[in-house]
Amino acid sequence: MKRIQILATIFLVAIIGSALAQENYDLSARTVEPARARLVPYHRMADAVAGNAVLSRFVAAVEEPTRSEGGSVATFTTHFALPVSWLNRQVILRVGYASAAYTVYVNGREAGFAPTGVMGAEFNITKLSKEGRNEISIVLDRSLLANKLYEPKTMTVENIEVFSQPTIRLRDIALNLSLNEQGEGVAEFAIPVKCDALNRKDARVHYTLRLNDTTVVAEGYREIALDMRREDTLRFACVVPARALWSAKSPTMLRLDLESRIDNRIAECVSRQVGLRELKLRKGKLYINNTEVVPNLAEWGAVKSLDEAKKYGYNGVVVTLDRNAEKVIEECAKRGMYVVVRTPIDTTLLGDDIRKGGNPSNDPMWNESYLWRNIHALNTVKGSCAVIGFEIAKGKTSGINIYDTYLLLKSLAPNHLVIYEGAKGEWATDK
Questions:
Q1: Which class for 393: exposed (0-12), middle (13-18), buried (19 or more C-beta within 10 A)?
Q2: Strand, helix or coil at 2?
Q3: What is the pLDDT of residue 355?
Q4: What is the pLDDT of residue 117?
Q5: Helix, strand, coil proportions of the chain in percent (round to 5)?
Q6: Coil, helix or strand for 285?
Q7: Are 417 and 390 spatial neighbours (Cβ–Cβ below 8 Å)?
Q8: Coil, strand or helix at 417
Q9: CA angle centred on 290, ends 283 and 273, rounded to 5°
């Protein structure tokens, strides 16, 4: 009898453990690529500069998705054709916006899971794709626990893109700038390069930095060799004249062109507008190019446009990294306005109880979710000159997840503001 009781207890514990594991299963991302600002590869630099993705041989035409619903689930199905010229390249799927947590399937096989869809996410679907017609299904489920941090109001998917990159590919663009004694900028560029091949790959990356699309500020190339599945970073630095630095009074943008060559053949071309400025946070004050700035920010959505924000005396906006947020940030950069980016977490309606099982801000179960979403937001917008800070979440309570996220963001972006209005005088926010 005692043996039966022990076995029954073990069986019950296993059932409870399985249920808890299943409940928490949808809180963490699966096979989502590291976040970056939208990157479109082209086969010619002229097309990359023009910025029309339709002109690129490395971007596939994606059909308008069809929608089907059942219960809490909405499935968006679309197709794309993979040309034979892509067979030795990586195939990347980017979902620009989905209103709820979703799972991606390619030709009936799971490609990955995003616990929040409102921030753009990418998936490497090379192994799941085939030459010719391919099917993509994006399955949104509003009943998933992951949606608790940012409740979906509708069930929609927008901006589905499929593109290809070489097996040794440009994964991201990062930059930093500091002033020298002459007031010029010393710009440092870091280009993470990823090798997805099973053998060693070599590439040469040419770079050109231009002012007003004509004046060459810097140019040259770097070579890189990577073994199987490795990633490394190409770096180059240059001096930028003071007149080319970005500020609210003079929002000067430069153009960075990157051309990757493998066996002396163009593998991909990327062009991006960049603003270069030194951002410093010293003793509670914010400085851009050694000049103190006082942010006076409107809530995006409370103002209908950037013109309206300026009309009422605001010099920037707080914008949640949701639908169309990247376009707002891009426009702020061009117009010399500041941005604080809020990670899409909103617990204002989830009560003030900070005991376990209460508000997620102090529930350890949500710790990884807070960290992942904030890192994803930071990596999506970190290259923008307009971004001066990050807001951890929207909420009225504080706790361990707020503390951990604040410390992590300050370690990754020490000169940006990191704020949380629900801190209530605690240390987990910049004053």
A1: buried
A2: helix
A3: 83
A4: 94
A5: 25, 40, 35
A6: strand
A7: yes
A8: strand
A9: 115
As a whole number of angstroms, the distance between CA 131 and CA 120 comes to 26
Q: pLDDT at position 425, please?
A: 84
The crossing angle, in degrees rounded to 10, of helices 400-412 and 367-381 is 30
Cα gap 9→2, rounded to integer Å: 11
Using 70 as the pLDDT threshold, list the residues of the chain that sit under it: 1-25
Please tell me the predicted confidence (pLDDT) of residue 23.
Answer: 52
Write the pLDDT tens digit of every residue in 395-415: 999 999 999 999 999 999 999
Model-level pTM? 0.92
Beta bridge partners of 95: 121, 160
DSSP secondary structure string for all residues of 142-188: TTSGGGGGS--SS--EEEEEEEEE-SEEE---EEEEEE-TTS-EEEE
Q: Phi/psi of residue 199, each to 5°? A: -135, 175
Torsion from C-alpha of 376, 377, 381, 387, nearest 10 degrees = -150
Instruction: Map tokens 């409940």 to a residue.
Output: 23
Torsion from C-alpha of 53, 58, 59, 61, nearest 10 degrees: 120
Question: Residue type for 263, please?
Answer: D
C-alpha 229, offset from chain centre: 22
